[in-house]
Amino acid sequence: MSRTLIIFALTIFSSCVLSAQTEKKLLTVDDLVKWNRITEKKISDDGRWVATKYEPWKGVSLVKLFDNKGKEHLSADSATNINFSPDSKFLIFKKGDSKKESLYIFRISDKTSTVIDSIQSFQLPEKWRGLIVYQTKDSVLTISTYEGKVNRTFEKVSGYFLAKERTVALITTAKGVLRYDAEKRVADTIMSQERKVLKSAISEDGQRVALLTKDTIFLWGSDSGLKSIVTKKSNGIHEGWRLSADRELKFTKGSEKLYFGTAPALRQRDSSVSEADFPMVNIWHWKEKIQFTQQVVDKKNELNRSYLAVYNIQQGSIYQIANQEIPEVTLIDEGNSDFVLATSSTRFQLEEMWEGRSRYDVYLINTVLGRSSLIKEALLANVLASPSGKYLFWYSDPDSSWFTYSIAESKISRITDPKSIKVFDEENDLPDWPASYSFAGWTKEDKEILICDRYDIWSVDPLAKRTPERITRNGRESSLVYRIIKVDEEDRFVDTNENLLLSGFNEKTKGSGYYSLETKGGGTPKELISGLFMLSEPLKAKRSRELIYTVESFEQFPDLYLSDLSFKKPLKITNANPQQNEYNWGTAELVKWVSLDGRELEGVIYKPADFDLGKKYPMVVNFYEKNSSTLFSHRTPEAHRSTIDYHLYTSNGYVIFNPDIVYREGYPGESAYNCIMPGITMIINMGYSDKNRIGAQGHSWGGYQVAYLATKTTLFAAIESGAPVVNMFSAYGGIRWSTGKNRSFQYEHQQSRIGKTPWGAPLRYFENSPLFSMDKVQTPILIMHNDEDGHVPWYQGIEYFVALKRLQKPVWLLNYTGEIHWPQKLTNKVDFQKRMFQFFNHYLKGEPMPKWMEEGLSAIDLDYELGY
Predict the structure, then answer these.
(1) Is the pTM value of this prediction over 0.85?
(2) Which run of H or E residues covers position 840?
């Protein structure tokens, strides 16, 4: 066991010993909302300070400041939006609520604060030599030092932009648009208030400004003044089109190009028909490429859609890049390249209805010469551009391979092959082509692309002139999943001249770690820290080796730790939930079994902390698809929107079983049964689970599966089924109202896994639909399905309830009116948890029925009581 692992193990052990000395409390639903989360975390650029925000689900948040020894220096309530100044001398945050917020500039050295009331926004420009910019709600913009020495103020400000590389601001006021040089303290008026400016932009060096008015784009240069560069009548703008304010103006890094948006002229309603005579009608057409319901959802975005165009500053030329046939554009090399990537799925939109994926015609457009080249037709892939702009690249699902397109050579290369590198999902059980594992990035100058298989990272030549090289030598052999950790978010490339920091996940133990890889020549990554816990993505200081990260397990909350890139001396910084020691908690254990059709499976059993092997415990089976990899997830206590809270149940004497499920195409219900039931049998045979007190709970896809199980077994004493599909025939033809898309693709190619149409395989739809076997159900059912569900139409829950009610089976339906696929309001989530807990406590622990279950609550009753 590594030294670091011993430290973490002792931390957990000591807390358990201490807590065991006092009688433990049992968690309640009301306790859940008091639990803190760490919702913000920052480390100063010099690595000496750590700031974090504790936020309960209900209550007052706290911002805390710690030094690199773990000593607390500040605790501020009702605070948020924490930042360190670039010189690491100040902590800046907002304090208050949405009605009245103040900006606090806390000087760390003497613990004094400068307070600015009624703050609206602020920015901390990294390269502005100790200056902060903030705007108050009375529209006053102030530029000052962190110590409070004012550089300049501006009144009646409606917007501002800051140049990244120089102390220059572009400020829009009631008097006009100003360019202010904070170093020289000189303000120049770029445009007076006579013209209304709709959009504005300033170049990174502050030397150029772009302004969009109703019908003109103006360009200001420090050496050329203000001039009109684009109007709707300019060469290059489509006839009848207009300039659009629905897209931001954008300079490239070197200020050689300005990107902007255009759009067709606004349509006018047919004036021959009065407004009163316009009918309120929707017309669905069998040939329309996009389902009408999706058109309704997308209507606002489509009305505001703009199409990218570019102004080449040196040449003074305009090129319209995108249009209605080729609407999607991706800039190459941050827009500095003469080329852009353009894609169009217009020809294939009808097929998306049932395929659930997009096909693209892919174009490479030269914006200087005004030429467009078709690279690939009907490509089933998302095409990306390499950082330096030398290549386009994509993963082709049908080929299970990565491809590149060399812009210089106009050549497509297949750079991986399934026979040599398995870059496709090896465990794919959908009726579709397997997706890819991730790619890890590009090396400098686009020399190599780093691609991941299930375990390892490969260095691949983008021209396929050399054999791919595995740079992590032991991933597959050790069942370790290696992935590169991006230490600096601003880095565009993976620097293979430096050691790489990797994350590692052990598929056998479910533990994780950090590793160091010396990339020259490849090799076995060096373990820095690893163990039976889960680690987060670390956050590194910009100018030092220090970083912060979290360590968690089912028993241990993910508090922050401070270390350096060696991870030799980790220091625990936060203790966000000390009250955990007061409660009876729980443990997590990995178990294995074999499915009824011979597959080796894994799952997790969660037990009370005071577990007694000689007792018989009630058990809730909760699942979705695969969750064994989350063995060491903490599962922060929460009034969840759609699932049981594991800590609440283990604290109150329940065992929880979460089994993995693998699927066979065409038989999702049977697959769930084959995987789950022998797992439950295994646990019953262990002797501590009461076979007469077993419940099941699932939501959405999990809700469907528990509904199916209820038709095939009488083992369960109670089942909660959230937002379930019970009738695959009607669900196939249903609409996902959140997107307006038809649900057919889910059944033919995705999660529902039927693999065929209802007319192509009607028996599959019949056999997998619980509705047609409702007479077999002997288990009391609690349904939760809300009337604004945009994922699963709530008539599915109604069909479920009505069928069981007709058969006079015990059934209840919770509809949180106005809520979507799950409750979002905290009050509703708490209510759901309380009612579900009462439901299981009655059927699995013999507690009395509450009034809402025993007698029900009428529409009038619900205005006056809760019936708990």
Answers:
(1) yes
(2) helix 826-845
